[in-house]
Amino acid sequence: MRKAVKVEAGASAAKISKSLILKKNDMSYLPQELLFNILVRLPADKVYEFRRVCRSWYTLIHDPFFIKSHLERSKPGFIVKQGFVNKNVLGSCNGLVLLKGKKKQSSLSVANLITKQRVNIPSTTSDHHDYLDYSYGFTYVPEAGTFKLVHLVDDRWTVTFEVLSLGCFGGHKWRCVNGSSISLNSENDKWQFRNQHPISINGIVHFAGVRLVQPSSIHIVSFDAGAEVVQKIRVPIHDDKECNTFIELGGMLSMVQNSNTNNTYSVWILKDWLKGSWEKQYMFSISKPSIKATVHWSDSSSIIDVRSSFSRKGRKIIIFERRSFSSTPSHIAYDLESSEEYELQFDIRQHSTAFFTHVNSLFSPKLCYNWVHLSSQRLFS
Amino acid sequence: MSSTKIFLKSSDDKTFEIDETAARASETLKNIIDGGCLDGVIPLPNVSSNILPKVIEYCKKHGGDNGSSKKIANGGVDKDKEILPDYDEEEDKREKVRVDELKKWEEEYMDFDQQVLYDLMLAANYLHIKGLLDLTVEKAASMIRGRTPDQIRENFNINSDFTPEEEEEMILIEDEWDDEWAFD
């Protein structure tokens, strides 16, 4: 006895039979979802090269939903500035980098290093270029599907923000955000925002400001590039003798606190951005460098800096740079979940002046991606 | 649990037998079985008799396995026996042997030409066999990884449908990078 069986799972029957008829022992008739599944596993440079195969590959590779899926599968790497060479990277976000011109120090552009697409960024409306390197944040606002540049303008008394959205109709323009000014100073306070590059997380750019007048303190001034609101956050603890570095861990702003007297680190996580509540979540130490007979400097002369971080598949990794006067720097990855330490093999001779976690992607600096939701339906319907 | 036999009919009208537990490795077949069509023959108009035995071979190996490599049908899986959550060195060793054995099996299983890969990938996609789909897609990806666009066109009989102007345009982008922005 036979029964007619209606296949309900998965793709519609009509679509399947179509792909069967078209099948002619070659890959040009590969169903779109399979081609998607294959190409999404290849590294960005290879995929981008493959746009030249034919129109259907080109269309797929430029599809926002494909680009987004490809990014999510990609492994992170790093962009490292050594000494004073290559000093033109200011930030990295979803495969795009913010670059500073070599000659004209105030000129900026955003580029994709894989696709080589680049857009020039006009000068800001303010004249405050003093702390150029540290006053620009570069972020992606997921809900808007837009890359945004955030400029912190510090006129000593107040901090205001300017934003520029990439891929907008009407070209790239800086726009002052009304109501974004925040007063930092009271009486003789003096603040400085040039400790480190701002940290961008899910559309929020966090700038670390140091109060120069004693007793010194650190504040985070955060700008939410989506809602365009500003927030001032106190750090949980501050001690002049300690070194605090801000990084991203699993989508949260985190502070790595290191007391210079030993190699012990505490990691504080900003649990609630609106309330400004921090929680101390990890404590660990990094092993001291192995002592070689020829080393003239004592252990204590080697410095360990927190350089970067990344999170992938539930693992949270902090990258440290260990350097001393006598040797080339070495790099250590510390896994917070497993408490394991790995020596990284970088060909880095000089100590790094900036260190960005970077993922290669196919995002274009010329576009806005707010049609991503529509696209995913179009692709597989 | 004794296993019921299921009959699958290929596109060229040949009938194949498979255990129900093995068939459940396919989402599509699982839905059909749960839909209550067990006494019939399931026609698979998209899978030929060349490929169907290969698919069945995979399902037999992975029957009752929902994504994890924990359970492998080896004379029938005893479903009543629970795997203890506690750390067990012996169990750990056995697990490692199983994983190694599975890897070796996969290696031998995946040794075939491009046409089989293509058909198997389509069958895995149609039958929603996630593990097999991952295996075949990963193999296809590693096959094209080292090739140039020209080699891909040649190898897969794809015609370039770009105009010469469009071809040129795709190469021109790099010229936008002058000294001001180039990396040292």
Automatic annotation (TrEMBL), chain A:
Q: Which residues form the signal peptide?
A: none
Taxonomy, superkingdom: Eukaryota
Query: What SMART domains would the database entry show?
Result: FBOX
Q: What Pfam families does the annotation carry? A: F-box-like, FBA_3
Domain (F-box): residue spans on this chain: 24-70
Read off the NCBIfam families from this record. Answer: F_box_assoc_1 (TIGR01640)
UniProt name for this protein: F-box domain-containing protein
The source organism is Protea cynaroides
UniProtKB/TrEMBL annotation, chain B:
> Which residue intervals define the domain SKP1 component dimerisation in the entry?
130-170
What SMART domains has UniProt attached to this entry?
A: Skp1
Q: Which InterPro entries match?
A: SKP1, SKP1-like, SKP1-like_dim_sf, SKP1/BTB/POZ_sf, Skp1_comp_dimer, Skp1_comp_POZ
One biological process GO term for this chain? ubiquitin-dependent protein catabolic process
Q: In which pathway does it act?
A: Protein modification; protein ubiquitination
Q: Which UniProt keywords apply?
A: Ubl conjugation pathway
* Top-level taxon in the UniProt lineage: Eukaryota
One Pfam family hit:
Skp1_POZ
Q: Could you tell me which residue ranges the SKP1 component POZ domain spans? A: 5-62
Residue numbers spanned by region Disordered: 69-88
Q: Does the keyword Metal-binding apply?
A: no
How it assembles, according to the record, is: Part of a SCF (SKP1-cullin-F-box) protein ligase complex.
Q: What does this protein do?
A: Involved in ubiquitination and subsequent proteasomal degradation of target proteins. Together with CUL1, RBX1 and a F-box protein, it forms a SCF E3 ubiquitin ligase complex. The functional specificity of this complex depends on the type of F-box protein. In the SCF complex, it serves as an adapter that links the F-box protein to CUL1.
What family name appears in the similarity comment?
Belongs to the SKP1 family.
What the entry lists under PANTHER family is as follows: SKP1
Specify the protein name.
Answer: SKP1-like protein
